[in-house]
Amino acid sequence: MVKLLSEVIKDFAEGEIQQGLNRFSTVSIDAYLEKSYYKTASLMANSAKAAAVLSDVSDAQVEQLYGYGRHLGLAFQIVDDILDFTGSTEDLGKPAGSDLKSGNLTAPVLYTLEEKPYLEVLIEREFAQEGDLEQALALVRDSRGIERSRELANHHAKIAIGHLSELPTSEPRQALIKLADYVLSRLY
After folding, report:
1. 69, HSE (Cβ side, Cα atoms, 13 Å)
2. Three-state secondary structure readout of the chain
3. Average confidence (pLDDT) over 13-24
């Protein structure tokens, strides 16, 4: 358990470093997912793995539960990043668009950049001119970036549920499936 917890702490630090180094820098979706793993999914993956280890299940089931947690964590982070554009300040506990304002480019932004390259101009100047941030938020909302991010979150939730297929049908398995559904339900 100590080793798993240490892994989570190491991963979180790596994710923070990556995020800091990549402020206002466009990265690939794969790099975004890697950072999301370090910052969020590692905790869920290693927590699921720890529960499996403590439950004394087979090594194969330990790895399946780790995979479940990994993809559930990615879906959770993607949903959280979507909510930064669609949620209210009241619901989020922070102003909408705060990730973008701080230079943290998430899936909705990365997908929008493919469709609306002018967004890169606003990002490169770090929203220094009046109205830049508002214009950037409008570009994201007027693109397919949020929709494509929803599809990505859904994809990872389905992969998470797929990792449960080898587990026996039971109440705990159903609860894990419902948890994946709940993560997606935050969008609606």
Report:
1. 21
2. CHHHHHHHHHHHHHHHHHHHHCCCCCCCHHHHHHHHHHHHHHHHHHHHHHHHHHCCCCHHHHHHHHHHHHHHHHHHHHHHHHHHHHCCHHHHCCCCCHHHHCCCCCHHHHHHHHHCCHHHHHHHCCCCCCCHHHHHHHHHHCCCHHHHHHHHHHHHHHHHHHCCCCCCCCHHHHHHHHHHHHHHHCCC
3. 88
Q: Read off the pTM.
A: 0.92
Tokens of residue 58, six digits: 């087979």
Return the closest-CA partner of residue 156 out of 50, 49, 41, 17.
Answer: 41
Distance CA(139)–CA(97), nearest Å, equals: 12
Say if CB 72 and CB 180 are below 8 A apart: yes
Tell me how far apart the alpha carbons of residues 18 and 21 are, in angstroms, rounded to a whole number: 5
Q: Which of 61, 38, 40, 41 is nearest to 51 (CA)?
A: 61
Quick: pLDDT tens for 42-67. 999 999 999 999 998 999 999 999 99
Cα-based distances in Å from 62 to 48, 125, 148: 8, 46, 31
Q: Are 110 and 32 in contact (CB under 8 A)?
A: yes
Domain ranges of the chain: 2-185
Q: 2-185: CATH homologous superfamily?
A: Farnesyl Diphosphate Synthase (1.10.600.10)
